[in-house]
Amino acid sequence: MSDEQTAAGGEDTTPAATVIALDADAPASFDSAERAVASLVAAREKAGIPAESAEDATAEEELSDEDNGAPPVEATAEDQETDPAAKPPLELPRSWTKDRAEHWAKLDPGTQEFLLEQDRKASEAIRRSQNELAEERNAVKAQREAAEKARQHYEAQLPVLMRELESNLQQSFGDIKTMDDVVRLQSEDPFRFQAWQVHQMRLQTAKSETDRVAKENETAQQNRWIEHVQSENAKAVEFIPDLADKDKAEKLTLRVARELLPDLGFKESELAALANGKERLSIYDHRIQRLFADSLKLRDIQNAPKAVVKPDLPPVQRPGVARAPGADKAALVQSLTDKLSNSGSEKDALELLIARRASRRAS
To answer: Which of the pair, 237 or 327, is modelled with greater confidence?
Structure first.
């Protein structure tokens, strides 16, 4: 201790330190020296202590880290936000296209983060909805498959039930064949007559159900056939444009029905059954094979190279002195004369005579 701090009697004369209490809402720590100084100044003013000069108040701030031994202050998140270069650019939201990248770059970081968060929530909601829809579709599909399986099993059991009922009827009531037998059964054995009636009712119910199922299956088959015909006709229009025109399509259909199919050997009854979907035709049918063969012949004709027609031009004259008119006929007469003198045949004589007359007409 120095002499200024101690009295002669050895007592400590250092003035007592003034304790300054911070506000109750003051933070436990400060993220910057400026905020700490501002809080300290405010507390001094409330305690009635005169404020220090600006130089004294900021003296501690001007001390370097080496002088006060305090660790270096790290950059805070707020400081990083003020420096755009210190933070990497945010990527486009998934729902945005790349052509909007320039617009995205013009947005401030806060707006970008907000839009990214909204896009993430929207994507999660869409995925959640898609998963829920997929689960519902799978559940509905499973229910339909189970219902279809149960329907097929039920329809398959109806003929079996009919056969069992008819067999039981024959075994238990084989003696009841006419209406007189029924009347006699009612008068002589009412309880057996009642059992016969119940059996008849069960048999009639099973038969009605069998007829209903058969009719529904026939209707469904007809609907499928109509859809098949419409689909195939639509595909045929792509290869045969004339079918798109009603009048042309009707004429083509009539020609096929009247000229082509009868010539191949199809009967009218077969054609009607084929048109209604009640008849099936194998690809190995000889008439279908004839159609294939004719189609190949037509394709060969269409793909054959076309013959080049030579123009009817006069014969080419070789360079040199032009021959006199009738020179060719005179040469022909001389050639035939020599030929006749060697052969002496009537044929050569006739040819020579014709050549001489032609030569005289030309001269």
So the answer is: 237
